[in-house]
Amino acid sequence: MHVDSLLGADNHLEDVEPADGRAARSHRTRRAILDAMRALHAEGDLRPTVPRIAARAGVSLRTVWQQFADREALLIEAVRRDREIQRSLVTRIDPDQPLAARVEAFVGQRARVLEEMTPTWRAARVHQPFSDQLTSDRKRRNAASRAEVESVFAAELSRLPAQQRERLVDALHAISLWSYWETLRTDLELSPLCAKEILISSFSALLVQAGFDPLS
Predict the structure, then answer these.
(1) Domain carrying residue 104
(2) Could you say which DSSP state residue 19 is in?
């Protein structure tokens, strides 16, 4: 399965600066505003005021409102910006590799993505109950995450009865979602390395329970 389909890519993801000078300046300004908001999220400010965003981006309040209709539109675009970055972190995992290598590759890649995306996804979670678009984005992201699990571990899943296969996919999917990563990193206060090691151990245990030993 293509990487873009696993990310739930859409037409908003292309980061190509327009050739027209005026359009190019607008593109750079828009990007500066988005990056300013993302930087504030990374610093722990999950609901930055528009004046703070404007100040960080080095633009006027008027410029922000010229680029974005409202705060929700700004956050939605920040989430899309993160999806662009996510694309740069994801590569196709060869499904013909040994199981242990696939587990290591999948968890390693997923850990990098989840850690990088955490600031914006934390902010999106705050606003999500009030935004249909953000709710839709989360559902699409989760569906893409599940599709990747099914693709990477297709060889093992295809050997299981339907009901057992669905249970295993559900379990692998659940522990590879951002919400689980956030629990490990924030609630348990684990380092990225420790959180990754727990994911690898959990993946391996679930696969062993299903009859597939990554170490065999």
Answers:
(1) 90-209
(2) S
pLDDT at position 197 over 80: yes
- Are residues 200 and 121 located together in one domain of the fold? yes
Category of 44 on φ-ψ map: left (φ > 0), alpha (ψ -120 to 50) or beta: left
Could you tell me the sign of the dihedral formed by the alpha carbons of 162, 167, 173, 178, in that order?
A: positive
As for how many domains the chain has, the answer is: 2
Q: Are residues 124 and 50 in the same domain?
A: no
> Tokens for 16?
């190509």
Q: What is the pTM of this model?
A: 0.75
Same domain, 98 and 76: no
**Looking at the predicted structure, is the pLDDT value of residue 198 above 70?**
yes
* Nearest alpha-carbon partner for 88 in 113, 63, 107, 105: 113
Among 53, 81, 109, the domain-final residue is 81
Write the pLDDT tens digit of every residue in 82-133.
778 878 888 889 989 999 999 999 999 999 999 988 888 888 888 777 778 8
CA 199 to each of CA 58, 60, 107, 167, 206: distance values in angstroms, whole numbers, following the listed order: 40, 44, 7, 17, 11
